[in-house]
Design goal:
The termini are far apart. A hairpin with a 4-residue loop joins strand 7 and strand 8. This protein is mainly β. Strands 2, 4, 5, 6, 9, 10 and 11 form a 7-stranded mixed β-sheet that branches. It has a 4-stranded antiparallel β-sheet with strand order 1-3-8-7, with no helix packed on it. Helices cover 0% and strands 54% of the residues. It has no helices and 11 strands.
């Protein structure tokens, strides 16, 4: 399985981001795709996830209302859209995947840097 995250960059506070995660290497039926981030000096933080089949989403309280995760089955791509960004959203953003039966995420993308300027 390969996950390729893209779309990071420099964003002004109050703006929005749209990250993509292109997935390949298997069919993702019954899999879950997640987004995480890690800010400098902080632990990795779960942002949210989406089930491949039904598109059911779960979000962390810290981003609820600002983040939207979606997927395009035809493109094998998962998206993270976040708005009302603040400098506290500066981090490396990772996508990850796991089977619905797994307790932890099995595959990780390389991460994409998002920097929010004040």
């Amino acid at each position: 399985v390969q996950l390729q995250a893209s779309g990071g960059g420099l964003v002004q506070a109050g703006g929005s981001l749209r990250l993509s995660c292109a997935a390949s290497g298997r069919t993702f039926t019954n899999w879950i795709m997640g987004w995480f981030r890690q800010a400098p000096g902080k632990e990795r933080e779960f942002i949210g996830s989406i089930t491949w089949n039904l598109g059911t989403t779960v979000y962390a309280d810290s981003v609820k209302g600002r983040a939207t995760i979606s997927r395009d089955k035809a493109k094998n791509t998962v998206y993270l859209h976040m708005n009302r960004l603040t400098p506290e959203d500066t981090a490396i953003y990772y996508c990850a995947s796991r089977s619905s039966a797994a307790r932890s995420y099995m595959y990780w993308g390389q991460g994409t840097q998002v920097t929010v300027s004040s």
